[in-house]
Amino acid sequence: MSDIQFKYFYGKESELFTFYRIPKELITNPRFKSLSNDAKLLYGLMLDRMALSAKNKWFDKYNRVYIYFSVVDVMEQLNIGRNKAIKLFKELDDESGIGLIEKKQQGQGKPAIIYVKSFVIEDDKLYSKEFEKQTAKSLETKLQEVSNTNSNNNKEINTNVDIKSNPIDIDVMEMGKRIRDQLGIDVLMNDDPDNSELYEEILELVLETMLRKDKSIVIASCRYSSELVKRKLNKLNMFHVQYVVECMSKNCTKVRNIKKYMLASLFNAPTTIKSYYQAEVNHNMVMRK
User: Fold this and answer.
1) pLDDT of residue 146
2) Rounded to the nearest 5°, which phi and psi values hold at 14?
3) Which of 14, 24, 87, 215 has its CB surrounded by the most CB atoms within 10 Å?
4) Rounded average pLDDT over 210-233
């Protein structure tokens, strides 16, 4: 038995928390029976990410909302390995999986965008025509009726409190472009295509950290002010990214949290890069003698 003592919920306390949305249709509809529970959970995470993309008006020319969701994101959020994360993507995609997501390569070393597709199947006999009629009516005049006739359904809950409490007051796309140029991501991907996905993940991690509204950020078990962390990340350039990737390739120990490891490496890169390469030069000189 766990030593942790959890408390009971009282009254409407359960409505005060942030939840991810896992559509009931994925659980109850036989069409999705072959989909693993982890893949269903990942789809829920992507729906949550899509709400943020819509908030920031990430639409293509056809007005379709899209997201960025990397393998590292999946590894971190679901606490799984890289191979498992890739497998979950394949379960959901439209090429080898069920088709709930569609990945589109942008070319020129840019990260792939992901379209999260609707789980509603129009010709599904299990789809409730009565519910469709009710929700098609004016919400203004039928709100009480819908509430009563669908009392067994969960209330719609805002699943991303951060969107309201910490509104993004900057142009995310512009910041992403600036960081991409600053880190020389396109150049690195062109010179080292085998690590393209890793460079993409580094870009996303730096952007994510720069957008954080926390007063402090934990790096390698130490808490630093957000201002200091962002100032150090602003010092990064293409050579720092190359250095971090090289260090990662030489690391033989097991990394429990790859995202935290990468962030710590990037944070320390401006401080340690000179000493690292000086040690490499000294080592090579000794070996030549």
Assistant:
1) 42
2) -65, -15
3) 87
4) 92
Query: How far is it, in rounded angstroms, from Cα 55 to Cα 78?
Result: 24
| CB-based burial, 168-188: b 16+ in 10 Å, e otherwise | eeeebeeebeebbebbbbbeb
Chain-centroid distance, C-alpha 142: 37
Cα-based distances in Å from 119 to 26, 34, 126, 239 = 8, 14, 13, 43
**Is the whole model's pTM more than 0.70, yes or no?**
no
* Residue 281 confidence (pLDDT): 55
CB–CB of 75/67 below 8 Å?
no
Q: Write out the two tokens for 136.
A: 């098609």
> Smallest Cα–Cα separation from 248: which of 263, 232, 231?
263
What is the token pair recorded at 273?
Answer: 């890069």
**CA 36 – CA 59 distance, rounded (Å):** 29
Containing 219, the helix (H) or strand (E) segment is: strand 216-219
Three-state secondary structure call for residue 114? strand
243 neighbors 188 (Cβ within 8 angstroms): no
**Residue 203 and residue 176 in contact, taking contact as beta carbons nearer than 8 Å:** yes
- Please tell me the distance from the alpha carbon of residue 267 to that of residue 263, in angstroms, as a whole number: 6
Tens-place pLDDT, residues 256-273: 888 899 999 999 998 888
